[in-house]
Write a structure and sequence with these properties.
This protein is mostly helical. The protein folds into 3 domains: 37-117 and 131-171, no CATH class; 179-269 and 343-377, no CATH class; 270-336, no CATH class. It has 16 helices and 4 strands. Strands 1-2 form a two-stranded antiparallel sheet. Strand 1 and strand 2 form a beta hairpin. Helix 3 crosses helix 8 (186-210) and helix 12 runs antiparallel to helix 14. The termini are far apart.
């Protein structure tokens, strides 16, 4: 009787390479991947990488002794990719079409490799392979003949249907939210979160490039719950945002690129930066006028030194919250700020590189969030 370890002795070198590779992956890659996989949306994304890898490993392992394990591994990877793609497609009809049709092609590929050589190892022509017959047992002691490639394709089609049913069963947990009777899937929720995060990161980064202090106040700029006094979680807030986005669709609210640019300039243009400085200068002027009126009747009783301390911010004792600038100083500071956009192409492009998005992606995300805020305000 042959030893059960004959396979391992025959393929010791190759198996060692595979085991070392899997060990490295388990220490370096699999742990963070599994942490990400706790999120159903992340798991769906990881399937595009993991399922082709799993398919290739299984096909290579099963057919390692055939002498054509690499070809089987390639078709196994294709099969895994088909399953991953089919599970990611939200349309039920398209998902089944990809799974059934794709696995039918993969099954034909496996059959073609298995039938490409005869028992002596000689290559066989395609015509010869297509003429092969196989017996299909449909009852004990009863069978009928069918072309080998046809039976392989039918098997692949059936497997595609099974994977479709299985994928829908494990990939359709209870929807996290429902709007107008339509469920929002975990994948859709993740896309909404990513859009909100990109829009806020884009706007905050642009503001930070010209005014870091103002950028801190921009955190959570697109949060809707706090506008209604509701302490919502981030997930709940983006779902509410989707509700208002659909309301914006019904109202016909459209935001073009010029409107997005104007929205950005509300926080980055020099004119906007001047407003708080000029407001502070106005408050100082009003305070000084009030003090002069208060001490007008006491002017004869105050020494010149006392008057200097009361009305000159450079000489009077500093108090908490005192800016230490006169209204004239603040007016001069505001005058030095240019009226135009302070970003410029260099800061703008640097911001896009830092957030890792193209201008089109950032504008599209910001456009949708502006539409949502517009619907909220209306």
């Amino acid at each position: 009787m042959a030893s059960p370890f004959q396979f391992f002795r025959k393929h010791t070198a190759i198996m060692m390479v595979v085991l070392i590779g899997l060990s490295m992956a388990s220490f370096i890659v699999l742990e963070p991947l599994m942490q990400l996989a706790q999120n159903p949306g992340q798991l769906t994304q990881l399937s595009l990488f993991l399922l082709p890898l799993l398919g290739a490993i299984l096909a290579w392992t099963i057919k390692a002794g055939s002498g054509r394990s690499t070809e089987y591994a390639l078709w196994g990877a294709v099969g895994g990719l088909v399953v991953a793609a089919g599970w990611r497609i939200s349309s039920v009809e398209m998902s089944y079409a990809v799974l059934i049709g794709g696995l039918g092609v993969v099954a034909f590929g496996f059959w073609n490799i298995a039938a490409s050589q005869d028992s002596t190892g000689a290559d066989r022509s395609l015509e010869t392979r297509l003429a092969d017959q196989t017996a299909i047992a449909w009852w004990p002691g009863k069978s009928f003949s069918m072309n080998g490639w046809v039976s392989a394709v039918i098997t692949g089609l059936l497997m595609g249907g099974i994977f479709g049913i299985f994928g829908r069963a494990i990939g359709s947990p209870e929807s996290p939210a429902t709007i107008d009777g339509q469920p929002i899937s975990f994948v859709q929720l993740q896309q909404l979160q990513q859009r909100r995060q990109l829009a806020e990161r884009f706007l905050v980064s642009l503001v930070s490039a010209v005014d870091p202090q103002s950028a801190q106040q921009m955190q959570g700029h697109f949060m809707i719950g706090r506008r209604f006094g509701q302490p919502l979680t981030f997930e709940q807030d983006v779902v509410m945002g989707e509700l208002f986005r659909r309301e914006a669709d019904r109202m016909g609210i459209e935001i073009d690129d010029d409107a997005v640019t104007a929205y950005i300039e509300r926080f980055t243009a020099g004119q906007g930066a001047k407003i708080p400085i000029l407001d502070q200068a106005l408050r100082l002027n009003m305070k000084a006028t009030k003090n002069r009126e208060m001490f007008k009747n006491m002017e004869g009783q105050l020494s010149p030194q006392m008057q200097e301390q009361l009305f000159n911010p450079r000489t009077r004792p500093r108090t908490k919250g005192d800016p230490g600038f006169s209204a004239t100083d603040l007016m001069a500071m505001a005058k030095e700020i240019p009226n135009g956009n302070r970003l410029g192409p260099t800061l703008y492009n640097r911001t896009l590189r830092r957030i890792g998005a193209t201008e089109t992606e950032a504008f599209d995300a910001l456009r949708q969030e502006i539409r949502i805020l517009t619907a909220v305000e209306i």
